[in-house]
Amino acid sequence: MTVVTPFIGARVQLEGLNPSGEFTSLASCTTIQQQESDQTTALDVASCETTTDVVNYEFMRVRLIGVEGTDPHYYQWKDDAGAKASVNLNNANIGAYFELDGSKRIT
Q: What is the pLDDT of residues 8-57, one digit of tens each?
């Protein structure tokens, strides 16, 4: 699974809903800043890819979290390196819930 977000340095946590109704951590990765088509640094695009065995999970959650010692940040959707702003993802509740139903893009 590839996750694309404007948040650089964010931990992406992939979790599956277990039979007892609790989410189980399956995999994680940390987003890194990407390049534009002209090879300049994209200020609003970061991504990471994670894989896991999703057998026995029908319902999933992916969420962005902060990790102690890191500085997740974004550029406030501006094309200006001076617009860099730190974000506390642990208080932001950013993520998505989805059923495992083949290959789909979640927006």
A: 999 999 999 988 999 999 999 999 999 999 999 999 899 999 988 777 78
- Cα 81 to Cα 78: distance, rounded to the nearest angstrom: 8
Under a CB-based contact definition with an 8 Å cutoff, are residues 63 and 15 in contact? yes
Is residue 91 helix, strand or coil?
helix
How many residues are there in the chain?
Answer: 107
Collapsing DSSP to helix, strand or coil, 59 comes out as strand
DSSP, res 10 = P
pTM of the model: 0.85
Quote the CA–CA distance of 28 and 6 in Å, as a whole number.
17
List of residues 6+ apart from 3 with CB closer than 8 A: 12, 29, 31, 47, 48, 49, 50, 62
101 vs 40: CA distance, rounded Å:
36
- Residue identified by tokens 């993802």 is 89
